[in-house]
C-alpha cells in the first residue's frame, strides 16, 4: 500500500511540475499554520505559470461570441430586407424565391 501511495505522490508531483500548479493552488495539502500571505504568493506563482491557459480559453470564448453575434446580426438584416421587400411590393415578396443551384440535377 505504501508503494502505491508513494507512486501516486510521485506522479502527482510530476503533474504539478509540468502544469505549474503547486500545493497551495490545488488545495491538496493546505497548511493550517501557513500565513495567508505565503499562500497568496504561492497561488500567484501558480497563476503566472497557468496564465497562458486562461488567456487561450478567454480568446476562444471571445472569438466564439464574436462569430455568433455576427451571425445574429446577419440574420436580423435578412429579416429586415424581407420585411422591406414586402412593404414595397407585397405580391412580389410572397412569391417563392428559387435558391441558387436548385435547378441543377442531383
Give me a quick take on this structure.
The protein is mainly alpha-helical. The chain is built from 4 helices and no strands.
Overview of the structural elements:
- The protein has 106 residues and is mainly alpha-helical.
- 75% of the residues lie in helices and 0% in strands.
- The chain is built from four helices and no strands.
- The longest helix has 53 residues.
The gyration radius over C-alpha positions equals 29 Å
Please identify the structural class as seen in this structure. mainly alpha
User: pLDDT under 50 segments (min length 5)?
Assistant: none
User: Helical stretch count?
Assistant: 4
Keywords:
mainly alpha; 4 helices; 75% helix; elongated
Q: What is the secondary structure topology, with strand pairs?
A:
Layout: H1 2-19, H2 23-26, H3 36-88, H4 90-94
